[in-house]
Amino acid sequence: MRVLYPPTPRSDASDTFFGTRVPDPYRWLESTQSPEVKNWVSLEATLGAQQMAMLPDREAFRSTVQRLMSAPFDSVPDRGRDATIFARTVPNLPQPVLMVTRDGRTSVLLDPNARWPGSPTILAQWFLSPDGNTLAYATDAAGGGWLRWHTLSTTSGREEPGSVIGTPDWASISWARDSRGFYYDGYGVERQPPIGAPIGKGFAAFFHRAGTAQRDDVQVYARPDHPDWLTYASESWDGRYLILGAVEGSGSGGNLVAIRALRAGSAPTITLRELGAAQYAYVDNDGPVFYFQTTDDAPRGKVVAIDLRDAARERDVIPQRSDVLEDVGAAGGRFFARYLHDVVSHLVAFDRSGEERYEIALPGTGTASNVTGEPADPISYYSFSSPTYPYTVYQYDVRRNKGTIVSQRYAPFDPARYTTNELFAVSKDGTRIPVFVAHRRDLPLDGRAPAMITGYGGFGDAYHPIWQRHTTWMAGQSAFRSRRMSRRRR
Questions:
Q1: Which residues is 349 bridged to in the sheet?
Q2: How far is 170 from 249, CA to CA, in rounded Å?
Q3: If you ran DSSP here, which 8-state letter would residue 215 be given?
Q4: Most buried among 50, 247, 314, 460, using CB within 10 Å?
Q5: Which are the contacts of 375, defined by CB distance < 8 A and separation ≥ 6?
Q6: DSSP-based three-state secondary structure for 35
Q7: How far apart are the first and last CA of the chain?
Q8: Beta-strand pair 121-128/418-426
């Protein structure tokens, strides 16, 4: 039966880029509150509901989706010296519960559902101190765009005095290596600059000592000479250096990166790279030799070493490859690189000299997080999922190159009966576009089976093949915990 869709008018709107006119006939749909758009959306929703109601076995399908959405699962753990925390989804609870494991025993550390029942307050971010004894967590009230940071003891569960306000909901924090406090970026007040003022006006990086009042926080880096810049700060893994940086408020382009020695009194700040088109992200350091993931003269990414004693030079440690280098981490004396090959994840281990050692075996065609841990700790973690492989967390032993399942999301069907295949389509300009098809293994692929199609394109982001019920909070935490090229490690 032919489906009659509501008419979608085309306008003559366009933009000109580099001398080329690019039509944008559906720009009017961006005015989401206009009567025309509201009417169009209503007509589309009505049509969708009518078509869905005609689907055979729709109620069985609805039941399966509901069970998928409410299935419990655990996040990738955050491991400290004396304790480990992770988030656990619980059926019928709107927010995840933070769990703590200490001395082999696991218990509830923070339950936001019980802490703020019936409140619009949500648990937005959380980070464990390196010693594992203090949790820093952020709350967001009614999506107001501001985070309020708190700390509590992982041994007693008691809240510590003092909190931090004025950090936007896109900002994060970074613990000091001695666990005495954390670095954060913000305005110090829950008020952005007036409309029309530069976003970086009044923005700075601060240090907050846990258990103290915010008025005692120390400003560690600011660039009032560039009010359109946003600054940040974190410590190196060995605790000897402060890593400082800045990005333009637009979020595009590269970042400035600078170093300041922490144990040298009033040590000067050494700017390693000025803010430009290239991105630099700290990976690890061996004394004054720092390793960065960068896009400098390497749009697909590489790892370089910069010696503070000759900072103008840099040498390639892991050269650029044909695949995109999405992330690099340090764990157990090795570097672990997460590459994207035709939108499929590959985890590759390198020694400190940059020699490739091996590739971590993944369960199939899908998406993995990078190996997360600490440079000297052989125990780390990563996750994997695909459209037909439930989200799974692995504990990884670097010494044995062995991953062990820690937790796996429940599936209300047998995933072994299904498979994910990667195919390729060719666009008009000859570009090969990866297409992932998930189906029952015994299903004839003769074009007669109904299919649900989804896709995305924009902002340079790849649409990864994942177990689709990645909840909003998990996706957010993954984004915060990943080292973005313009940000830093915890």
A1: 336, 358
A2: 12
A3: G
A4: 247
A5: 237, 284, 330, 331, 332, 333
A6: helix
A7: 55
A8: unpaired
Please state, in angstroms and as integers, the Cα–Cα distance from residue 59 to each residue in 44, 56, 414, 428, 454, following that order: 21, 8, 19, 40, 21
Q: What CA–CA distances, in Å, run from 304 to 68, 290, 292, 313, 321?
A: 42, 8, 5, 10, 14
Q: List, for residues 282-331, the tens digit of each pLDDT value.
A: 999 999 999 999 999 999 999 999 999 999 999 999 999 999 999 999 99
Express each pLDDT in 362-418 by its tens digit.
999 999 999 999 999 999 999 999 999 999 999 999 999 999 999 999 888 899 999
Do residues 443 and 450 make contact, with C-beta atoms less than 8 angstroms apart? no
- DSSP assignment letter at 154: T
Please name the residue that has the structure tokens 């297409």. 435
**Phi-psi region for residue 416, left (φ > 0), alpha (ψ -120 to 50) or beta?**
alpha
Token pair, residue 153, equals 């003891």
Amino acid of residue 61 = F
What is the rounded CA–CA span in Å between residue 46 and residue 190?
41
Instruction: Output the six-digit token pair for 486.
Output: 């313009």
Provide the strand spans (E) within 163-265: 164-168, 173-175, 181-186, 204-209, 218-221, 229-235, 241-248, 255-261
